[in-house]
Specification:
Elements: E1 6-15, E2 20-29, E3 34-38, H1 45-53, E4 61-70, E5 73-74, H2 80-85, E6 88-91, H3 103-111, H4 116-129, H5 131-135, H6 146-158, E7 164-168, H7 176-193, E8 196-201, H8 204-210, E9 213-218, E10 221-227, H9 228-233, H10 235-240
Parallel strand pairs: 3-8, 3-9, 6-7, 7-8
Antiparallel strand pairs: 1-2, 1-4, 4-5, 9-10
Helix pairs in contact: 3-6, 6-7
Bound molecules: adenosine-5'-diphosphate and magnesium ion.
Length: 251
């Protein structure tokens, strides 16, 4: 059996002396799989992404136990730029595009790890995926709409053709129509690149529609996992995340 695209084993994280933000987390992204991580605000979703992408130390956090591997290779402690070269792509929470830079310059930042000779071809591929970005190529990113900025953040990650893509709260603050359009593109990307994808979402319905498997995290602990259909039909998720009311309860 080939190794998983990503594997977290018993991973714990703390920020300074603040107790554990992740406590013994296990999570697997199979090759080519699309996995959703669901959880309320403050549950530890972004912390998990930071642990995977090697960015915890920027936030005064550290992995205190466990192991993380990508494609069977241990990656804990590797710097972000190295992980990007190994095929990891990240779309951070809050998009974080460079607002003063043009759309094209933002994509160039993403392409910085590529050999110069492939840069143009890869950027063209992103423009093909998001024609909107091509139209706005020379505009400062700060002038784009929220949806366009999200496309840009996604494009910046995709320019390296990652084999593992981590997307944190894509839907936050965006109109539903835009969000479903972007998710649609993401699906195409997954299929054409054969990329494995982790989407982190507070919007459970969206994420469960998109993913094959799902995990629920509460206060740093994975409390439920299974196929997207299994997770969607669980009582806890129906009540707490999908807004269904408890059957037989009196109003
Ligand atoms: N830089 C930080 N320093 C201290 N605590 C943090 C930091 N970032 C996040 N936390 C804490 O870790 C927990 C998980 O946060 P986070 O991973 O951002 O949750 P989510 O992304 O699910 O909303 C929260 O209790 C949060 O307050
Ligand atoms: Mg978060």
């Amino acid at each position: 059996m080939s190794p998983a695209a990503l594997e977290l084993r018993n991973v714990s994280v703390s920020y300074g002396r603040k107790g554990l933000a992740l406590d013994g987390v296990n999570l697997t992204i199979p090759k080519g799989g699309v996995v959703a991580l669901l959880g309320a605000n403050g549950a530890g979703k972004t912390t998990m992404i930071r642990a995977i992408t090697g960015l915890l130390s920027l936030h005064n956090g550290q992995v205190t136990a466990g192991s993380i591997s990508m494609d069977g290779q241990a990656i804990l402690g590797l710097p972000s730029h190295k992980l990007v070269r190994m095929g990891m792509g990240q779309v951070p929470e809050g998009r974080l595009v460079f607002k003063q830079l043009s759309v094209e310059e933002n994509l160039r930042v993403g392409a910085a790890v590529l050999p110069k000779s492939t840069e143009k071809e890869r950027m063209d591929a992103v423009y093909e995926l998001f024609p909107r970005l091509l139209e706005r190529r020379t505009q400062a990113a700060g002038w784009l709409s929220g949806g366009e900025q999200q496309m840009l953040a996604l494009g910046r990650a995709l320019v390296t053709q990652p084999k593992l893509l981590l997307v944190d709260e894509l839907s936050l603050g965006l109109a539903p129509l835009i969000v479903s359009a972007i998710y649609q593109q993401l699906k195409v990307v997954g299929q054409t690149l054969g990329a494995s994808i982790l989407v982190v979402e507070q919007n459970a319905r969206l994420a469960l529609d998109f993913a094959n498997t799902a995990y629920v995290i509460e206060r740093g602990v994975i409390t439920l996992s299974g196929t997207a259909a299994e997770v969607a039909s669980s009582d806890v998720v129906r009540e707490s995340y999908l807004g269904a009311s408890r059957e037989g309860s009196t109003p």
